[in-house]
Design brief:
By secondary structure, the chain is α/β, with parallel strands linked by helices. The chain is built from 22 helices and 24 strands. Helix 20 runs antiparallel to helix 22.
């Protein structure tokens, strides 16, 4: 679902050495959070800020920055002082998108190899720049963080959507109760399928896990347990639009000769087709159709009148006849017949023709005047489209319509969720026209949004004190209403979370900073999700020779780095969702993972956990089980079929390959299906 505004570029080497340092340009809210997250990775960070910062949002941040340079990040001298010529990556996250783009070009001239991450929402420009700047990625902070606020507003089991290869995946966290079909009937491992992967299992009254694979496969689901999983969502319907690739435009331009153009324009089928298309284009503009009909009618009347007068007065010039018919339509009786012979008697039929033309002209002018008046009045006094009414119950109240608020509102509309937005300032009628809106002072607006029957409240103004005040007021008015509050200062957010436990506290820039930092190390962050009170990044890798993932089984990647593979593509082959653990990753493959920052950091360093489990194979039940056992061992462990064959001929013995816990338990289950008795031995 929630895709970033980044280009389609995917980082190259996953495991490149940290070596050089990182430069952050702009120490606003986003920049400060980026520095804080980068220091968690243990890298050296230089920063550029044009103005002196009097109030740091992160108190100890000045001591964490290795070098702080004052000046304009677009100037080569300032970039050189910050160490851009030999840095590994540059984060351009100032509040000005034009400054970020300008600085990106200066950085590339100074360092052709550095990765450039830019804060920018100009998607078309970003894609065009990528072809010239090479290792360049553009992200937009509000688009990355808004889904977390939108999902929090739902207050339901849904934790997020992921749009991959035209398929929609959803992350769900569900609490098992006594009536749930899984309760006392399924083990945790039973939930895994070709379309679903378990992310966490939290038994009743247990702490939230900080890692993915801490759940026990054979544990039975009980009432009160919490289960989180990601699955392919087939029932999205119209809830979330799936982006489809645009048809490529042909680069060849057809050149037609003048004779060919003339023949095409004069051909009846072509003219008929063009007229039909033009008439259809005016279907929504009835006044334009009326004007066209009146114009055609006047043209026909003109030609008919000129023909009749030419037959009656053949000596008259065509211009005189044109003038005569025009005056007849305007109703100037005397001026018409004085042209011919004022002394002669006027035939009765000509008088009747003049009367008819006067009536036609008067009616036509009246219609045209009415259409012109309508146009002028609608242009001058155009009234805004009336917005939908405020929902009565079970709706979301969104307070604050800044950049984050508008993005959250758009996502709620895509999710078909009833909601009402509150803004302290009038909003243009062209912005989210189908959104119920209350424009009022924020605290007083709470009485106008049916707060007592609301499902949840999301407060995302740019003032965190006001956010806290409104959050407390909403809880007092409706204690059962889920409340999400936006904050900026990490310490303040932690204090609110501890003292106001009913509220969910999120920081847009803290969420986005994790995605920006993840891109520094060669990954393409597609979106982010909040799960178990931590940020999970949907991250795409393109495997290259020699990086930390090249040559590993997916099981070794998943359990060794504590990530969850959800998509794999080999070369030009179709993308596989929820790929098997038995796949071996090779250079050129594309892999999409769910990972925390800790998992990405482990991949970056190549710090893979070592397997600690062994499998003891005792015996086979049937003779055919030997062949089946060889095949299972080769598939799950990745060893050759000859090694597996030698092992199966000398039972009982221990498998000489150490395995991860989940990998070993899966091997034992598959061997038992093949009539081979085996057990897991942990060390």
């Amino acid at each position: 679902m929630f895709q970033s505004t980044s280009s389609s570029f995917v980082g190259a080497s996953v495991g490149a050495p940290v070596g050089a340092h990182i430069v952050v340009c702009g120490l606003g809210s986003l920049g400060q959070h980026c520095v804080a997250v980068l220091k968690e990775f243990g890298v050296r960070v230089s920063a550029i800020e044009i103005a002196e910062i009097m109030d740091w949002e992160i108190n100890d941040l000045p001591t964490q920055v290795d070098a702080l340079v004052r000046g304009d990040c677009c100037q080569s001298k300032i970039l050189e002082q910050a160490g851009v010529p030999d840095c590994r990556a540059v984060l351009l996250v100032t509040s000005s998108e034009s400054v970020n783009i300008e600085a990106a070009f200066a950085v590339r001239l100074m360092n052709p190899r550095a990765r450039i991450i830019v804060r920018s929402s100009k998607q078309n420009l970003n894609q065009l720049i990528t072809t010239h700047l090479g290792d360049f990625l553009a992200l937009e902070a509000t688009q990355l963080s808004a889904p977390a606020f939108a999902i929090a507003a739902l207050g339901s089991e849904m934790r997020g959507f992921i749009n991959l290869a035209g398929s929609l995946l959803r992350v769900v966290k569900v609490q098992i109760n006594g009536s749930h079909p899984w309760c006392d009937r399924k083990t945790v491992n039973d939930l895994n399928s070709p379309t679903r992967r378990v992310l966490s299992h939290i038994p009743a009254k247990m702490d939230l896990p900080t890692e993915f694979h801490t759940w026990q496969p054979d544990r039975q689901l009980r009432s009160g347990d919490l289960v989180a999983y990601v699955e392919v969502f087939e029932g999205a319907g119209g809830m979330m639009p799936i982006a489809l690739p645009f048809a490529p435009k042909s680069s060849r331009k057809s050149r037609l000769t003048f004779k060919q153009i003339t023949a095409r324009l004069t051909s009846r089928p072509y003219l008929r087709k063009q007229l039909k298309a033009f008439w259809k284009s005016t279907a929504e503009q009835q006044s334009k159709r009326v004007a066209i009909v009146v114009g055609v009618m006047i043209f026909i009347v003109f030609l008919l009148g000129m023909g009749i007068l030419k037959l009656t007065y053949p000596d008259q010039h065509w211009l005189a006849l044109f003038y005569t018919v025009g005056v007849m339509l305007l109703g100037a009786y005397d001026a018409v017949f004085a042209v011919f012979d004022p002394a002669s008697s006027i035939p009765l039929w000509l008088r009747l023709m003049n009367l008819l033309y006067m009536l036609i002209g008067t009616a036509s002018i009246a219609v045209l005047y009415a259409l012109l008046t309508e146009r002028l009045l609608s242009a001058k006094f155009q009234l805004p489209k009336k917005r939908p009414p405020i929902p009565i119950q079970n709706h979301v109240v969104l307070i604050g319509l800044g950049r984050v608020g508008q993005r959250v509102a758009a996502l709620l509309q895509q999710l078909n969720q009833p909601f009402v937005a509150v803004s302290s300032e009038p909003l243009s009628s062209s912005i989210l026209p189908n959104m119920p809106l209350v424009v009022s002072e924020l605290t007083s607006a709470l009485t106008k949004v049916n707060l007592e029957t609301a499902r949840s409240v999301v407060v995302v103004t740019d003032n965190e004190m006001e956010n806290l005040e409104i959050g407390l007021m909403t809880h007092a008015a409706n204690p059962g209403c889920a409340t999400t509050i936006r904050v900026f200062t990490p310490q303040f957010g932690e204090s609110i979370q501890q003292l106001v436990p009913f509220a969910k506290v999120l920081s847009a820039y803290a969420l986005s900073a994790e995605a920006f930092v993840a891109t520094v190390f060669g990954e393409n962050v597609l979106s982010l999700i909040r799960l178990n009170e931590q940020t999970v990044l949907v991250t795409e890798y393109e495997i290259v020779i020699g990086d930390t993932l090249d040559g590993l089984l997916l099981s070794e990647i998943a359990y060794g780095y504590d990530v969850v593979p959800i998509s794999h593509q080999k070369g030009q082959e179709p993308t596989r969702l929820m790929p098997s653990d038995d796949l071996r990753i090779q250079a050129g493959d594309r892999l999409v993972l769910l990972a925390t920052l800790d998992g990405l950091q482990q991949i970056e360093r190549g710090d893979r956990r070592l397997p600690t489990c062994w499998v003891n194979i005792e015996k086979t039940v049937t003779k055919d089980a030997i062949f089946d056992g060889e095949r299972v061992i080769a598939i799950v462990t990745g060893c050759s079929i000859n090694e597996a064959s030698q092992l199966m001929k000398q039972l009982p013995q221990r498998l000489p390959i150490p395995l991860y816990s989940h990998q070993a338990q899966r091997l034992v289950r598959e061997l038992r299906k093949a009539q081979v008795i085996a057990d897991v031995i942990s060390t």
